[in-house]
Amino acid sequence: MTHPAEQNAPTTPAAIADEDTVTVPAESGFYGKMVDKVGTVFAIGFLASMSVLIIEIIMRHVFDSPTLWAHETTTFLCGIGFVFGGLFCASRNKHIRVVILYDIAGPKMRRALDIAISMICAVASGFFAWAAWLMVGRAAFAPDGSIRLETSGSAWNPPFPSLLKIFLLIVMVALTIQFVILAINYMRGLGGKDAKS
C-alpha cells in the first residue's frame, strides 16, 4: 500500500524536472523571488573573494610583494555573503528547524506549525534588527550625530566593520519582512496541497 503523498507524486521526467526547478515556495511571494535573484550577486562575491586570495598568493609568494587589502576584502566579501545567506534560506523556506514534530504532523497541524514558526522567527528577527540598529548607531555615527564610519584600524583601514553592520541591519529588516510574508501566506493557505488540506 502506498502513502497518499506518493500517489500524487510526479512520475514523468518532465514533471520531476519542473518540481526541481521550483526553488522559492509560493508562500514567500514576489519578495522571496527577488531575494532569490539577488542571491546570485553574493555567490559571485564568494568567487571574487577566492580570486582576491589567489592574487594575494601570487603577489606574496611569486613577487614577494604582499597586498594590504586582500585579507580584509575577502573577510568582508565572505561576511556579507554569510549574512545574506540567512535571508536567502528563509526565502526558499530552507532555514534550520527541528522537525521531530513537523515530520509526524498532518497537513493541518503542519500549516499551524508553519504559521507559528514564521511568526516566532519574525519576532526574533525584529529583535535582532533592533540590536543591529544599536550597533549601527555606534559604528556609523559620531557622538555629535555626524556620520563617522568605524574602520578596521589596520594599515589599509577600510570602513568594512561599519559597512558590515549596516548590511546586517538591512538584512535583518528584510528577514523580518520575509517571515511576516510567510506567516500571512500560510494563514491565507497559499502554495500547496498541504496548506489547503
Automatic annotation (TrEMBL):
Record InterPro entries: DctQ, TRAP_DctQ
Coiled-coil region: none
Pfam families: DctQ
Bilayer topology annotation: Multi-pass membrane protein
Domain Tripartite ATP-independent periplasmic transporters DctQ component: 50-179
Membrane-spanning intervals of the chain: 41-63, 69-91, 112-136, 166-187
Compartments in which it is found: Cell inner membrane
Keywords: Cell inner membrane, Cell membrane, Membrane, Transmembrane, Transmembrane helix, Transport
Main location: membrane
Membership in a protein family: Belongs to the TRAP transporter small permease family.
Subunit structure: The complex comprises the extracytoplasmic solute receptor protein and the two transmembrane proteins.
Biological role: Part of the tripartite ATP-independent periplasmic (TRAP) transport system.
Protein name as it appears in the record: TRAP transporter small permease protein
Organism of derivation: Thalassospira povalilytica
